[in-house]
Amino acid sequence: MIAQDDFQRIHNGITINLQKIGSNVNDIENLVKKIGTAEDSEPLRTRYHKLGNDTKLLIQTTNQAFQQLKNIPVHTEADINRKRILTDTLPSQYLKLLERFQQTQRLGVQKERESLNRARGASQEGVAIYHNREEEPFDSTFSSQQQTQAIIAVENQVDLQTIHERDQQLRKLE
Questions:
Q1: CA distance 75 to 66
Q2: What Pfam families would the database entry show (predicted)?
Q3: Quick one: which of 20, 87, 89 has its CA closest to 58?
Q4: What's the CATH number for 2-173?
């Protein structure tokens, strides 16, 4: 009877974890869609990474719970049938969620890398514009104003520290 109570408790815990993992994966998918768009921001990236880490912890906890569930002794034919019925669907649900999570993580890393490369390119363009401006004669005021505005826009868009942090985060994920 104690084994049955343990079995049910662990089974319920796994079911709840699978629901949380599924919810997290949905949220991560929505966040990944926004990476590299006008909606992209540092808080969005922070939430994306936090959800990814939280989901990894849930996956580890769920793996441990599956091991516990597997190791619970069953003594009667009824208990064996009950255990089989309760455990038939969980592993397949779990594997589908793991696949979705991994695909989403890969897509997120790819989009972050693309965003980082765009930011690096914009940063290099801004430096080139700045250097070209110094070499031009000062009689082209309109062109200088445009270049200054372009430099300011690039500087506002690209924070080298943020780029460095993103690069480090990507390397951690790889």
A1: 19
A2: Syntaxin_2
A3: 20
A4: 1.20.58.70
| Residue in 17, 42, 52, 73 with CA at minimum distance from that of residue 163 | 42
Whole-structure pTM value: 0.68
Could you tell me which residues come within 8 angstroms of residue 15 by beta carbon, excluding any fewer than 6 positions away?
Answer: 90
Domain ranges of the chain: 2-173
Q: Can you tell me the distance from the alpha carbon of 70 to that of 91, in angstroms, rounded to the nearest whole number?
A: 11
pLDDT, tens digit (0-9, with 9 covering 90-100), for 67-112: 998 888 878 888 788 788 777 788 889 999 999 999 999 999 999 8
